[in-house]
Please model this.
Amino acid sequence: MSILQIKIEKAGYGKKTILSDIEIEIAPNKVSAFVGPNGAGKSTLLKSVMGILEYANGTIHYNGIDLLQSRTDEIVKAGISFVPQGNRVFTDLSVRENLELGGYLIKDKNKLGENMETVLSYFPSLKEKLKMDAGDLSGGEKQQCALARALMLRPEILLLDEPSLGLSPSLVKHAFGTIKKINQELGTTILIVEQKVREVLKIADKIYALRLGNLVFEGEPAGLDEERLKEIFFV
Model:
């Protein structure tokens, strides 16, 4: 049983093809991690799911919808949220306003408040800074704010692109722990692109390794030993 069926013939930017012949099925309520060297096509795969590439050929099916034929706003409404890399927040807006923007589809104010309370339970440090401009947060707090905003619609699938980027080792451990907790307690299916392979192996249920735009490994984290990692990243 899968929640997302990805069949990408080619995907990329301009005349440059980044991904070729990718076929993946994503299990529901699990953490699926995509690893590989820079330029392997990991972020391109997430952008294919979100419909924000210049071109992508193939099909990506979710709840009967072909995402490659859908606009990004339609994909969000269908139940998929995306946190791009780089701690992207609306810097001139308060933390509360950032979260409210994340829940823009929720018309019921009580429901919006309930969702915000649930989301903030995973990011307690943000609860004390709701009136602060998001641009004044620390790097780790901005990442939390971006993730919290993406959760406001309680998506069925959450895409995370390099959530550990720029974080200290202690914050990386905390961030991954929070991501796993969200997956387990909310039942959110998570697709995560990550360079910190050893850390993401600890929280992932399934690993997909990409190299030069091709899928070179698919399996449980235990199957990705040191020798296989060297082949993927350095050979």
About this structure: The chain has a mean pLDDT of 94. Strands lie at 4-13, 16-26, 31-35, 55-62, 65-66, 80-83, 157-161, 189-193, 206-211, 214-219. The longest strand covers residues 16-26.
